[in-house]
């Protein structure tokens, strides 16, 4: 079980260290309906993280084995493709990072966060944590790692729990902190939002490069 959780930890961190969702969380917490909107977004984000790994773990678990113990080489090749895709994605983000100094441009949809309903906000969290290309690639990698492990049901549940806590921590933690210290955190959240917006591309490129190399290496040892 420790080996499986060890494989999931960097992938969970890869999902957690996602500047745009964290910025969205902060923006929501600075709106008049902070607690309702922030909580809804956190619920959607957590559901997406858990749903993605469970879905692809179930799909990976249906793959046949060669001798009842070892997995067919296609599992390794899938990981090789995922690793390469993550590395290419990292290079693309790095090459298209903003060059000019000054305030970073945030996605246009963030300007409408204060007008979103609870259901829409939950859906946004769900989409950003699962359908987002970077998180989808990482979620597939995590699902394969879990689905091809030899964990019992209880061990797999624990592994998913650890993955869920870590992958959702950077979204859930600010929401929980706001509930207890909203006034003291307002200034800090604004500063953090500006820094994340400015360094988003650099953070994502380095993170994806490291995770991509890890997934690629694991796949190459299995083919």
Short characterization:
By secondary structure, this protein is an all-alpha fold. The mean pLDDT is about 85.
What does it look like?
It contains 7 helices and no strands. The protein has helices at 2-16, 19-29, 34-61, 74-95, 118-130, 133-147, 153-220. The mean pLDDT is 84.
Number of β-strand runs = 0
Kindly estimate the percentage of residues that lie in beta strands according to DSSP.
Answer: under 5%
**Termini gap:** 23 Å
Protein structure class: mainly alpha
Level of helix content? over 70%
Order of helices and strands: HHHHHHH
Low-confidence regions: none
Report the sheet with the most strands, covering strand number, pairing sense and barrel closure: none
Shape: globular
Mean pLDDT: 84
Instruction: Give the oligomeric state.
Output: single chain
Individual helix count? 7
